[in-house]
Each structure stands twice: as C-alpha cells, then as structure tokens.
Design goal:
The protein is of the alpha+beta class. It has helices at about 10-35, 40-60, 65-75, 130-150, 160-170, 235-240, 260, 265-275, 285-300, 310-320, 340-345, 370-395, 395-430, 440-445, 445-455, 465-475; strands spanning about 80-90, 100-110, 115-120, 175-185, 190-195, 200-205, 205-210, 215-220, 220, 240-245, 255, 355-365. The chain is built from 16 helices and twelve strands. A five-stranded antiparallel β-sheet has the order 1-12-11-6-7. The chain has a five-stranded antiparallel β-sheet with strand order 2-3-4-5-10.
Amino acid sequence: MFGATAATTTSSACAQSARQSSRVLSSSLTSSSSTSSSSESSLLFSSLRNTHRHRQRNASSPSSSSSSSKKGNVILTSAKLALIPSYSNLPHPAKTAKGGEDAWFIKPDVKGGGVIGVADGVGGFGDQGVDPGLYARVLAFECLKAHQVSTNPLFGGSDPKAMILQAQKETKLPGASTLCVVEIDKSGQLRAANVGDSGFKVIRGGEVVFESTPSQHYFNCPFQLGYMPLSADADDANECAEQYSFKAMEGDVIVVASDGVFDNVFNEELVRVVGNSCSQGLSYESMAKCAEDIVLVSRAHAEDKTYASPYSLEAEKYAKETGTKVKVPSGGGGGLFGGLNKMMGKGGGGGGKMDDITVVCAFVGPTAEAQGEIMKSVQLAAGLYDDLMQARNKAKGEEAKTLRTVQLRKQMDEAFEESKAKADMAKKQEAAAPSEFSKAQIDAMDSATVRRLLQERGLPTSGKLERLKERLAGVKRM
C-alpha cells in the first residue's frame, strides 16, 4: 500500500444493483466465449473478462518475489515515479453482442513512467455497416506501437500528440474515434493529448486538481479521428489535438475515461468514489476496484431517467442558447414527477446518458518501492495487448479494402482532373481560334445562305436574321 484516502459513503443501493447487472453480463460473456473461443465476440470481450478476473489471476502471481531481485537494477535506470493502472469496461446494453465500441490501453513500465489511453468509436458509422469498435481498437494498438517507437532512445522522447498523429495515420479503416492519451515521463511530468470528449482527471488530496476539457465542434459533436484519405469529414489530429502538461506527485490518482463516465458523473461524486475505493491505500487492487466502481456508478446514473446528469444539464443549456432540442439517450424527460423532484433537489433532470463506459484508473507510485504492483499491471497489460493485436490482425482484410478504395478514388480523381484539363484547354483553343467567316463575308450573305451554313454545322436555324448572323460569326475555324 502506498497511502490511504478518506472518503464519504456513496449510494450503495444503485451500486449494488449495477454490480449485479455487471456480474450477469460477465457470466453471459464467459459462457458465450466457451462455446466459440475463436469467434469475434470472444476477441472483443476478452478485455472485459480480464477486468472481472484479474484480481484472482494476479493474487497467485510471483511478481513480488521477482521484483525484489530486480529492485537494485531498477533504481539505477528508472524514473522515480511510475503509473500503476487497471481498467474496467461495460458496453452499452444494445452493443454487448459486439463488445461495445470503446477501446483502451495501458503500458506500465518497471523502469518508471508509463502511458494509458481510451478511445471511443463513433457509433454513427454502425448505420453504414462499419464496426466503430474495430476502428477504435486498431487506433489504440497503433497508439501503443507509436509509443514504443517514441520511447526508443534513437527517436528521442515520447510525445502523446505525436503518438495520436501516428496512430491516426496508420489506422487505415473506415470509422472514427475520439482518443485521450496520458503519460508520466521520466521526469515525473504528466503529459497528455486529447481529441474529442473522452478525457482525464487528476485527483489529489480529495479534489480534482487538473483535468482535460472536451474538444468539440459544438455540443455533442466532438472532434473525431479518421483515416483522412478516405473520409473528408475526419478531423486532423495535428490541428485539433489539445495538449496538457502537469507536475505529477506520488499519490495522485489519474482517471482516463470515455464520455460514458463524464456525461454521467460530476467531479464531486467521482472524487468520493475514488476515495471509497482507495480507503485501504493505493495499490493495483485498489485501482481495479476504483475503475469498476466508477463504471458501476456511471451505469446506475445512465439508467436513471430522473437524474440531472452533466450531459442533460449541458443539453438544456445548449437548447436555451440555440433553440435546438436535444434528446437524452436514457429516455429523458424526468417522468411524471421529474419537475417536482427537481424543485425538491432530488434530481428530476433530463436523465443520464446511456453509452459504452470505459475507465482506466492509475495511481502515481514510487518506482523502486512499487515493483510488485507495477508487475501486476504489466501482466494485465500483456493480455490486453494480445487482444488489441488480434483486433489489428482481424482488420487487415478491411484495411486492404480501404486502401483499394482510396487508390480507386485517387485514380478517378486523377482521371477527372485530366478530363477537366483537356476540356479547359479545348475551350481556350476554341476561344483563341479565328472565326470561320469574316464580318464582311457574313454581312454579304442572304438569309438562305446563313441558314444553310448554320444547318451544315449543326446549329439552330430559327430566329431573326441578325441573331443568326451573330451565331454564324461565333463559329471558329478549327
């Protein structure tokens, strides 16, 4: 343990109900995967199963003994501070069959530092026959890959925005996603980059001391990464990724999450949940509990149609400012007693927002003393990396289609530009060419001659003689 955090009690009834739903979901996923271990759902849900099982799996891990033998070497080469993360995820009820559309990654390091991130696939692409979750998972994998390259001494220091730029470039698929990346560098500095309405918060001493803000075009329309050669609507990370820097301290708890959390949980409640989860001190296990508890509270609020959620309040504000009505995906409206409850301070807002919910929780610990805890996170990260690798391999066929589409579109664009250039050149040549008949010749022609010459050239012959002569004067000698 690396310190304790005091907190008040959260709403146990909602949390207990949500925990039961989560256990039922976990049970059904385990049963499903046993009948078709090679199926798509097995791949996409493996990370969720890890979330519910990793405590038992790591309890028997020999990481503590192995880390002590390496401690002397680590002290010589490591940063003083390290991220010790865990995670939890719960898909939207309507998207459980495909594992939801969020993705996440963790990369703890026994030498200190570390990086974590969350990507939220844009669900609207599902209407086009595209799996937004696949795009998000490949984006997460490519971000991890970019981090591996950036931390190589040959390539200089790591940079979250550079990771996002590289990940966007290498995710050559239809779809779109938000992405938030947070790292602790070797100097103990928190550095982050964010695109869209996923985000992060730093909790210290019972309060949020630093946080990201949603980056969006307008309310409920966040900036979104996509493969730019394929989608003209994709935002460029180089232009829209917001960067953050903050001095981390031992004992900080960092929460990185999709908007399924921040649309439903206010900062004050988030701090209470983190405090309760970490009441016995900071450890890998407390981070696992913290992430799970945040997910459960978020889902409980998402299901509450009378809850005045952050999302419903923002929707109400946006509606007043623009005159645009926004429907809250929970069902909203507050029901028969919604207005009365709101007046009495008992909620009654537009309701929570139902969505995929993903949370990565990490505490900042002393690298040398926290080797056992770091190794538990490293083992969890290995399984998650395998899941993302499988998603990356699965996407190869779709990526080949995408590249063919982009190449075909490029060829069509080039052919169109070539045709347009030829047409423009022909017009210029025609404009520069001399007239077939001089003005004196045309003035000397009678009506029958003018009409015959126009007819021979496929031009209209009806109208007054003066108009017909003007038409014949426009005929160029080619």
